[in-house]
């Protein structure tokens, strides 16, 4: 079992930046991919970005060029650097980790508003 704890969400103005972090504990040595989904009110949860243990990344088209995912295997942590934020990026962002199953964090709210 893997436990995930996210941090770094908050309120930011359009065009601003935020950095999300997600720390894994428990059976973390079995983790292969980690990443982030998001869910806006009334919408389905959607993939934002993912990264494998070897550092291969995958991004949703709507964040390419603005968001960067990275991973520190030594610290069991995945990061999401979000730049040029837009109001439509407002959502709860969930960290996930895949091992024998998929584990989820509790979510962190990101609000982009002036």
Q: What is the N-to-C succession of helices and strands?
A: EEEEEEEEEEE
**DSSP helical segment count:** 0
Radius of gyration: 13 Å
- Average pLDDT figure: 95
Shape: globular
Structure in words:
The protein contains no helices and 11 strands. It is mainly β. The strands form 2 sheets. Strands 2, 4, 5, 6, 9, 10 and 11 form a 7-stranded mixed sheet that branches. A 4-stranded antiparallel sheet has the order 1-3-8-7, with no helix packed on it. The radius of gyration is 13 Å and the shape is globular.
Brief descriptors of the model:
about 110 residues; four-stranded antiparallel β-sheet; mainly beta; seven-stranded mixed β-sheet
Give me a quick take on this structure.
Helix content is 0%, strand content 54%. The protein is an all-beta fold.
Helices, strands, pairings?
Elements: E1 2-7, E2 10-12, E3 18-26, E4 34-39, E5 46-51, E6 57-59, E7 67-72, E8 77-82, E9 91-98, E10 102-104, E11 108-112
Parallel strand pairs: 2-11
Antiparallel strand pairs: 1-3, 3-8, 4-5, 4-9, 5-6, 7-8, 9-10, 9-11
